Amino acid sequence: MTQSENLSTRNAYMRLTCGITMTAFGIGRISRDSNCTGGRLMIIIGAMKTAEGILKYCPTKAMMNSTMKSVMDSSMTSAFGGQAASIIPNIDQLMKDFAGGNSNANSNSNSNSNSNSNGEKNNSQNNNSKNQSNDQKQNNNNNQSNSTNS
């Protein structure tokens, strides 16, 4: 059975850090009380998280992804009467994107959001410049009225 990385680098660093910390706390608890079940449990879980961080592979996450895929396939098949493959041909790609396996979808959505935010910025800049020109006109009118009053 081959395994591929299913954790990002940041996630792996966090698991490694938490795993080492949990292992250290577990060892500390066992050093005070040799019959401490909580300390033993912390060592086991900490070692597991450390291994996941080093390998960048989480078996629980892989199992959940495969379960999610089978549930999605069966629900799509039952919902569309066995025609799910023709309606959604890229279910594997969608599941990879959902699991974080493909960054192309993220870059496309980021470029779209950047263009929207730039458009919004341009509109707000245009509104600001209009407000400034209106303020300048008002100041000129005030100056003229003050000069005629003097």
Characterise this structure.
The chain is mostly helical and 150 residues long. It is 82% helix and 0% strand. It contains 6 helices and no strands. It has helices at residues 9-32, 37-55, 59-79, 84-87, 91-99, 104-149. α1 (9-32) runs antiparallel to α2. The termini are far apart. The model is unreliable at 105-119 (pLDDT under 50).
* Total helical elements: 6
User: Strand portion, in percent?
Assistant: under 5%
Run of helices and strands: HHHHHH
Work out the helicity level: over 70%
Determine the mean pLDDT.
74
What would you report as the Rg, rounded to the nearest angstrom?
30 Å
List the helices and strands and how they pair.
Elements: H1 9-32, H2 37-55, H3 59-79, H4 84-87, H5 91-99, H6 104-149
Task: Describe the structure using short key phrases.
flat; 150 residues; mainly alpha
Summarize the structure.
The chain is mainly α.
